[in-house]
User: Fold these one by one.
Assistant:
Number 1:
Amino acid sequence: MPQIAGLRGVLPTPASVGDAVVGSADGLARALADGKLVRDTSRAVYRYHQVFAGKGRTLIRKSLLCAVKLSPFSDGEIRPHETTVAAARDAALARIRANTAHDEPVLMGFRDPATEVERLCRKAESNRPTLEVTTADGTVHKIWRISDSETIGALRKYFAPKKLHVLDGHDRYEAQLAYHGEITQEASPPMYSSANFGLACLTSLDDPALAATSRHRVIRGAAKRETVFGALGTHFIVDKVTGAAKDVAKQFAALADTIAHQPAFIAVFAGEPDAWRLTLSPDVSPVAEGISVHRALQKLDPIVLQHLFLDRALPGAQVTTETNAEVALASGADLVLITRPLSVEQIAHVDELGGLLPAGSTAFHPPLARGLVSLVIDPDEDLV
């Protein structure tokens, strides 16, 4: 079975694409009946550009929307780097059941140092986009339909031996696997059935526009600072960042100046004018402290933050995540933890070692747009 395949995608019309990406209340079947969505008559893959503002320049992240052969994580063909939360997985599964389709792709990375996928898609990119829309965050999303069999065949051949890294959407991928299990429980579909595939957005790990962003922790039900810090023992070096409780730039400057590149994060307690930098003491080994993790990963920020801070100092607290530091600080929470992003290579290293970070450790900016291309799941329809 091929690793990837083309699909008869369901796309919004140019007039309705704005509604589609913000999450129209219409189900897929109703939107098709109303003419807001249109299904392609032939199989295709879709070149996807996200144009967004970087530091002082415009960046373009280039990806490929296609069907990917579903494979359990245990097979090692598609690799996770995070655990999942049951509620998020169940919500994604409910959406797939309701639409009998995947309308939100899973972001996956692959190694392409020779930029072969970019070469194969270059001809399509010279044409006018099939769809173009700007989302509320200012990102311009562009889609090109690639339907010629020669290009699709070359892409399928290229991806056949590739390992894929789940970058974002672990819950969605697990939901795709769960739905596959449900609809194939009584009878196995043909090898190339759409039931055996999931919707994915494939991005080169070598793309300079691919970068992870921070997931800051927003905590409610936290104890007072003295109690929290008292529960940490001597695991952390605690430094006051004077007057920085609302100063994001000052907080990140403090994180950039840590001891021997040790794991660190910023803590901001409600009602206090100062922020606090917590740095793992150089002589502390999370593995020696009983944390079950590969030694090469034990000092990644999310591992230390979860297992040596949250689990030990704030058991039972309500923790959510936020990618915008200013929004997190304005949330009114009892405690906000400002974190640094991991690099793409650090994330790939986690899954290459078979490790798992805590759920919600990583994110990528800009997020993928939902509803640009949907994959209908019909056990009787082949994709190849």
Note: The radius of gyration is 22 Å.
Number 2:
Amino acid sequence: MIYLDNCATTKPRPEVVDMMVKMLTSDFGNPSSLHRMGMDAEKIREGARASLAKFIHANPKEIFFTSGGTESNNIAVQGFIEKNKRFKKIITTTIEHSSLRKLFLRYRDLGYEVVLLPVDPKGKVLISELKKEVNDNTAVVALAQVNSELGTIQDIKEIVKIVKEINPNTFVHVDGVQALCKIPVDVKELGCDSYAMSSHKVYGPKGTGALYIKNAVAIPSIVYGGGQEKDVRSGTENMPGIAGFKVAIDCELEDFEKEYAHAKNIKAYLLKKLEENLDRYQVNGEDGSPYITSVSIEGTRGEVILHYLEEFDIFISTASACNSNGTEKSAVLQGIGLPENLMEGTIRICICKDIDEKDIDEFIEKLIYSVKEVRGVMER
């Protein structure tokens, strides 16, 4: 099997699975309990908080555990909007993940002025438009550091600087789900007010995430209950998930530089092999994250290519970002102005630490076969 859909999810490390089994079978205490098992669970939770804080250069008190990136985005954006409720303008971009895009559109229905900033053909935010839109009425600006379809890396530090110069009271939230453990991240250098993270994108378990909130600023909760996570996210903590997340982050603290260099080499090799073997295609986005490559192939349909490759035990994704009934086009590809025929023929290749050149060679061989077969039918 060659798994090239690592933006959707990653295979948990064996060490992660071992830790989760231990948490489920023997160390299953609730960290809110006052007895020894509860205190042991609390130590594990706080150790995880410290590991994650170290990785992103934060203070452990600024890290809050959630169920994943979607919840982290919602907690931050809704919390900041409520905290800044005298301001009625919120800003994101045309190419955001649905957890931001749909949330912002919901606030439009509630009467907020919602701005979807345009991007250039490579997916970069148009800074000139940002400067025009931020004003004294802006409550929140939210965007991803790394785009999940294109791999484009936004200049968050510059964006934060511009926003704060215009309105120091505007909160800047960053969706870091595709950035964590994939590019260097220093939240203090970025200057953002919050940063969303997800465990299952970094060889950890699903159902676990985290939210960095600068200076642990108190924000109104959107989840009410027992007051866990300093009332930012009530509910008994997912201790197997948090413990697994810690193991994944600890591994990255040790292996990040090596894996990052490996990913850059593999992406360069992939691009070279595409250029040597494929015609009538284009690579979308800038040369951003080494883990993400978006390719549009003329005369094909991405979904059909996906199923051809699946027969060879090769797993990729399309960039269609379809909804459950499969009718919605990718907002990201529309946002960069990709023509309809290229949108239809777009695939996304997302590598991981385990992919090597031999895997890429086999992928390219089967891709070329699949493209030939699909074009043979579509271009009759």
Note: The chain has two domains: 2-8+256-378, 14-251.
